[in-house]
Amino acid sequence: MKLKVYSNIEYQVHQPSTFIFNIHALRTSSQIILEESLEIDPYLRVEEFSSANGANRFVRLKVEEKMNFKLSYKATVDTFPRLIQFGQDVEAVPVVKLDGEVIPLLFPSRYCQSDKLQRLAQHTFGQIPNVFAQVMAITDWIYENVVYLSGATNSQTSAHDTITERAGVCRDFAHLGIALCRALSIPARYFTGYSFKLNPPDFHACFEAYIGGNWIIFDPTKLAPLNGLVKIANGRDAADAAVATTFGNVTCSSIEVGAESLEPNFEPFWYDKSVFTGLCIE
Question: Domain total for the chain?
Answer without folding.
Answer: 2
